[in-house]
Specification:
The chain has three domains: 2-101, Helix Hairpins; 106-230, NAD(P)-binding Rossmann-like Domain (Rossmann fold); 257-315, Regulator of K+ conductance, C-terminal domain (Alpha-Beta Plaits, 2-Layer Sandwich). Helix content is 48%, strand content 18%. It has helices at 2-19, 35-46, 59-104, 116-127, 142-150, 163-168, 184-197, 213-219, 227-240, 242-252, 274-279, and strands spanning 24-26, 54-56, 109-112, 135-139, 154-157, 176-179, 202-207, 223-226, 258-264, 283-289, 292-295, 309-315.
Length: 321
């Protein structure tokens, strides 16, 4: 719209000067102005350059300059200067907001890649109670970052393999990192860089080929999800047992009836056994005590103690179901 206003002001000035060409002199010659000369005069006049080689000589043309061309000059300058000031102001505001965010953010989650896997990971975190402003999405595609910001997350445009891009996401203070890129070699490089910048964060990475799984673990990932093999196993399970496949699908979909969560024990659960919780409708998969996971199939824990954490299968709470 601003460009259109500036062009219209320029064309209107050009037309006014052209139709009054006999009242202008070009370096002392009075014989009318061509369209090019009129456009030239309009451009240097509206931009306040004013070389003085073309000048109005009639009272009527001077009056037109005062009443018509001068207001058009004001319009042209307001559009030009206003746009420049707005761009500079917006850039400064964005830089200040970004700096303020980086200074305050802590223990957040960084998701590198916002394709199908990245979006699903973000949705799962939100469904589990993570605040949207505590999730930062890093992607090279600006369209993906725009989508992430529309979803309520913080977006950073850039290559996740580059250290300065990850620092823009304050990855050194991140608590959790999700590597959800589309290529295994990219995931490995991202994981290496992320682990070096954030040695204490929990890193979960996706891998397309199972043969690269161990490489990602050696690169610093705490958990690696083989996406292609996992999907294949789920399809095979669904073929062998429709019910088992439906249950697994239910567990993978955070919006459906069942979910797998890790949580602290409640005061009422102190002293109870995992079997007591099973009878209450929550299936205990593991008890985490002093950082060690005791699985249900190998655990000898008979009573829950203060500080224990549970990994359970339960129904979604009504407010998130």
């Amino acid at each position: 719209m601003r460009i259109l206003i500036a062009v219209l002001a320029l064309l209107l000035t050009t037309a006014v000067v052209y139709f009054e060409g006999d009242c202008y002199q070009d370096r002392g010659v009075t014989s009318g102005l061509s369209w090019i000369s009129s456009l030239y005069y309009a451009a240097v006049t509206l931009s306040t350059t004013g070389y003085g080689d073309i000048t109005p000589i009639c009272e009527s043309s001077r009056l037109v300059n005062v009443l018509v061309i001068t207001p058009l000059r004001f319009v042209f300058l307001i559009v030009l200067v206003g746009t420049t000031i707005e761009v500079l102001t917006q850039r400064t505001r964005e830089q200040m907001r970004s700096k303020r965010w980086r200074n305050n953010v802590n223990d957040h989650t960084v998701i590198i890649g916002y394709g199908v896997k990245g979006r699903a990971a973000a949705k799962s975190l939100v469904d589990a109670g993570t605040e949207r402003h505590d999730i930062v999405v890093v992607a090279m595609d600006r369209t993906e970052v725009d989508e992430a910001t529309r979803d309520g997350f913080v977006g950073v445009v850039g290559d996740g393999r580059r250290e300065n891009v990850l620092r823009d996401a304050a990855i050194e203070r991140a608590k959790r990192i999700v590597v959800a890129t589309n290529e295994d070699d990219t995931s490995i490089l991202v994981t290496l860089t992320a682990r070096r910048l954030s040695p204490n964060a929990t890193i979960v990475a996706a891998v397309r080929e199972a043969q690269n799984l161990e490489i990602l673990r050696q690169s610093g990932a705490n958990n690696v999800i083989p996406t292609a093999e996992s999907a294949g196993r789920l399809m095979g399970l669904s073929l062998l047992s429709t019910t088992a496949g439906e249950l697994m699908e239910d567990l993978l979909d955070s919006g459906r009836g069942l979910e797998v969560v890790e949580r602290e024990i409640t005061r009422d659960e102190l002293g109870q056994s995992p079997a007591d919780l099973d009878a209450a409708g929550q299936i205990v998969l593991a008890v985490i005590r002093k950082g060690v996971a005791h699985r249900f199939d190998t655990s000898d824990i008979t009573r829950l103690e203060p500080g224990d954490r549970l990994v359970v299968i339960r129904h979604n709470p009504p407010e998130r179901a």
